[in-house]
Design brief:
about 160 residues; Rossmann fold; alpha/beta
């Protein structure tokens, strides 16, 4: 899915940020979803999945979303801070991040277990070393990333 998902204004969306705040740009998914918390009224649920987003499946299930949007740092060959809607098939089974499960595994599980469509929004990291903060390249793109997701979600900031 290199094009954004077609989310209707009435669709319920679970927005799941993934990553570790201890590993530089791996935290971008968490930072982006935090900035979207509180928009979209009752139709948008922001969930900080952290390094074990699979532990939030009960919260997601109870919300009964039409869409589940995963937000994560994904190395896809772009410039740091670039974003891309990613097909899980393009990821393979490996993940550089600190998650127990890879984004592809989580997407496959959610698609199978939930009555919802699943989309993965990836952000190219500059660095994911332990003990680092978000890189300046990713920090400079945060507002654009939030605006891009907000547009797709049909939410107002």
């Amino acid at each position: 899915m290199t094009t954004p998902p077609q989310i209707d204004a009435a669709d319920r969306v679970a927005l799941v940020g993934m990553g570790s705040e201890l590993r530089g740009d791996d935290a971008v998914g968490l930072e982006v979803v935090r900035r979207l918390d509180g928009i979209g009224a009752d139709r948008l649920r922001v969930i900080e999945g952290g390094v074990a987003p699979e532990n939030q499946t009960g919260v997601i299930r109870r919300f009964e979303p039409d869409w589940i949007v995963l937000v994560d740092a994904i190395a896809f060959g772009g410039d740091p801070g670039d974003s891309k809607w990613i097909e899980s098939d393009d990821l393979g089974g490996e993940s550089f991040s600190s998650h127990k499960s890879t984004p592809a595994m989580l997407e496959t599980f959610l698609t199978r277990e939930m009555d919802a469509d699943v989309a993965l929004f990836g952000v190219e990291p500059a660095r994911i070393e332990f003990g680092t903060d978000l890189s300046s390249a990713v920090q400079q793109r945060l507002d654009d990333l939030v605006a891009e997701l907000s547009d797709v979600l049909g939410a107002t900031q």
